[in-house]
Amino acid sequence: MAIALNVVVSLFLLIGLAPLAEGLLRKVKARLHSRQGPPITQPYLDIAKLLMKEDLSPTDNWVWRIAPALALGSTMVLALLTPLGRAPALEGAGDIVVFIYFAALAAVAIILGAFASGNPYGSVGASREMMMLLSVEPVMAISLFVAAYKAHSMTFSGVMANHQFSISLAVAGATFLLALPAQVGKLPFDIAEAEQEIMEGPFIERSGPGLALFKWTLHARMLIFSALLVSVFVPWPYLVNPGLNLLATLGKILLVVVLVGVVDVVNPRLRIDQSMHWYSRVIVWGAVVALLFAIIGA
Amino acid sequence: MSSNGKIGKLRETFGSELLSIQERVPGKVYFEVAPRALAPVCQYLYRELGARFLITTGLDVREERGGFDVAHIFSLDKEQAFVVVTANVAADQPRVEAITPQVPAAAWAERELYDMFGVKAEGHPDPRRLVVSDDWPADLFPLRKDLKYGDWPPRREEAEAEYPFKSPPEGTSTVVIGPFYPVLEEPAQLRLFVDGERIVDCDYRGFYSHRGIEKLGDSMLTYNEIPFVAERICGICGFIHSTCYCETAEEAIGVTVPDRARYIRSIMLELERIHSHPLWLGIAGHILGFDTVLMQAWRIREPIMWLCEKITGNRKTYGMNLIGGVRRDLPKEIHPEILDVLKKIEEEWIAVINAVAGDGTLKARLCGVGVLPEEAAREFAVVGPTARGSNVDIDARVDHPYSAYAELPPKVITHSDCDNWARVIVRLEETVESIRLVRQGLAEMPDGPIMAEVDPNIPAGQWGLCAVEAPRGEAIHAVLTGGENRPARWRVRAPTYPNLQALPYMIKDETIADVPIILGSMDPCFSCTERVEVVSARSGETNVLTQQELLARSREATERLRSGGGRR
Question: CB distance from A196 to chain B under 8 Å?
Answer without folding.
Answer: yes
